[in-house]
Amino acid sequence: MTAILEVRDLRLWYGTARGSVRAVDRVSLEIDAGSVLGLVGESGCGKSTLGRGILGLLPEGARADGEVLYKGRNLVTMSPRELRRLRGPDLGLIFQEPMTRLNPLLRIEDHFRETIEQHDSKLTPKDVRRRSLDTLGRMGIPPTRFRQYPHEFSGGMRQRIMIALALVLRPSLLVADEPTTSLDVIVEAQILRILADLKENFDTALLLITHNLGIVAEACDRVAVMYAGQIAEEGPARDVFADPKHPYTRELLRSTISLDTKVLHSIPGAPPNLISPPSGCHFHPRCPDVMRVCPAHDPIETQPDPDRRVLCWLHGPEREIPDGGTAPLEREQIAVAEEA
Amino acid sequence: MSAPDDVLVSVRGLKTYYSIRGSFLDRLVGRTGAAVRAVDDVSLELRKGEVLGLVGESGSGKTTLGRTLLGLVPATEGTVEFEGQDITHASEHDRRLLRRRMQIVFQDPHASLNPAMTVAQAVGHPLEIHGLARGREEVRARVADVLERVGLAPAEQFMDKFPSDLSGGQKQRAVIARAIILNPVLLVADEPVSMLDMSVRAKILELMLALKHDFDLTYLYITHDLATAKFFCDRIAIMYLGRIVEIGPSEAIYADPKHPYTQALLRAIPEPDPRRTIPRDLPRGEVPDASRPPLGCSFHPRCPKAFEVCGWESRDLKELLERRWAGLGEEGFEAEQAAVGPMEALDVAKTHVRLAAHGGAHGSDLRGLLDRARAADPAEPFWTGVQEMRDANGSLEIDWYDPVEPRLLPADSVEVECHLYDETALAEAAQRRQSRIPQ
Known about the structure:
The structure holds two protein chains of two kinds.
Chain A: E1 3-16, E2 19-32, E3 36-40, H1 47-54, E4 62-70, E5 73-74, H2 80-86, E6 91-94, H3 98-101, H4 108-119, H5 125-138, H6 155-167, E7 173-177, H7 185-196, H8 198-202, E8 205-210, H9 213-219, E9 222-227, E10 230-236, H10 237-242, H11 247-255, H12 293-296, E11 301-302, E12 309-311
Parallel strand pairs in A: 3-8, 3-9, 6-7, 7-8
Antiparallel strand pairs in A: 1-2, 1-4, 4-5, 9-10, 10-12, 11-12
Chain B: E1 7-19, H1 24-28, E2 35-47, E3 51-55, H2 62-70, E4 77-82, E5 85-86, H3 92-98, E6 102-105, H4 109-112, H5 119-129, H6 135-149, H7 156-159, H8 168-180, E7 186-190, H9 198-215, E8 218-223, H10 226-232, E9 235-240, E10 243-249, H11 250-255, H12 260-268, H13 314-326, H14 330-340, E11 352-356, H15 363-376, E12 386-392, E13 395-400, E14 409-411, E15 414-416, H16 423-435
Parallel strand pairs in B: 3-8, 3-9, 6-7, 7-8
Antiparallel strand pairs in B: 1-2, 1-4, 4-5, 9-10, 10-15, 11-13, 12-13, 14-15
Helix pairs in contact in B: 5-6, 5-8, 6-8, 8-9
């Protein structure tokens, strides 16, 4: 497999009145052509900022450092003009709220015409229509509704239209930020089915950003677990779920309430703010396996298996851990006061 | 069944309709607009000390039912009894007293707290409104008690904070504190954890279970999430388009769901298990418009198991054609659409339609079109509902069987509103199948 996108040591931060927020802190990722990577984490962990940062869609005032390599070109240093040319035919984005992304005054037809003409002005109106109807049809939107307005569609159909709009230019990478969060469970499953089948139908790679581990398990080839701006663990979805290496992944899995859940479980404390995250490993105040080394030294990424990465002192490297560093850290019980 | 004095809330034949304002012209000529049947003939009982889960998708009417029960929305028809007393049309004065006994926790903790009030003011507000505490000191003392009880301890640390200083979970704890400070007997919890992160949901659910035990509470737990309901509820009521389609003990609902809708809801929940994949055979489409519900069983257009008597009609034909055209390619679609012509006539619910052929086509062409659609997907349940198709002078007439109205009937330990469990409906369908005019 060849990587369509490589993120190397990416840092994204922005200033606030209370200090600078390090939303993404030295993140490295690879997405293979035609594969689905799930990016999972709790609210405020930086996953949405990462998704937008990859596409160069950060708010005014945000700063980026590192590399986002797409077909060998670094998007971080690219000019806005060049970047704009890539968005659409190469890189697509689907947002959480389909209603706020469609123009209520434009017919679906006009949305498609505008999108296609932005990037390919040589197509005849007939070709534009054919291409639009074909993509919509694959999303299950009948051609009879091509001339309707966004308000005439249900929530699930609007999200299908958004996906069709992103796919009509045949991008090689699609970033989907919580695409099913506002949808009902059956419609959510319908949309996930479409996204999981993108590879077969459109040969598009997908970065699926979500807070729901269940969605990752069912739709993704690989998964990256994000905590406090960093990738805590990354690997094939099957392996990560069967045998999580990072205590955060393990605890998050146990906290997910599903039909198979036998005992309720939660992680003590709350995710940290990203202005002044805890020292050393950012997860150490909530970690049941915390050791003396954890608050004192930043963890170093290791590969417990050839295909997996983890950022946790439990997996070494041993030569970097000072003497006595693996002893459990004694600490007071976390008060509910600090809890979410 | 339980003794009557066990029953805290009893809802009988409850209907809550919202009228849609028609156009200016409609009002001018005195025509009343249509109505959204948010709750459409619901009966249920809430026993003391139990947790009843009201589960459904958005638009199912679950929130409206909860609000009607509390009197926040007026009932259109039917009755709500609380502790044996009919409160459907209680006066504002009586309602005030009732609100000490029944409280609600809303979904969004960020929107439920006034950003300009401190935690102590917000949580103590009900005491002041109802005049149940004398003086600032007593209010603060009781607020401190209840804050500690919901885990916001030490209370002094939280009393003078504003909502913006709290995390989502802490806010929801404060909202719960405000709801229980009057010692209610009934708590309606409308999606209390769905806005929270996964890692803190369990904590709020555990808190609610502990409070139920300590304060002898009865819960109506409104949710779209069957996974949390499984943990939390003694009984489950599944709602679809304003009606309860299945109700029974939790174990029975999860072990052996009867209604095809319940089955679909359970299968659609994403499980954190990578050996599972997203099912491909989920119900199509979405919850329909409650102002124009489908004939017969409201779920029939999406139901994989629907048959003769479920309520097939003109709008189902339109959907069938549209589904077909979505996958047909441009030429195929244009040719067929030209023959069918405008489809507005199909928008009105009818079990008999006359479809005029357009663009020089004949009735037999339309028939050929439908035969092709049927051959492409013979298992489509729609066709079971077609009684007869006749060519007639440049048009095609289609008759569907009359719908049989579904009823909530006992099946094993639950009650379910589905023709698959109704002997009369099954017999009727079998008879129709035998007497069907050969096509």
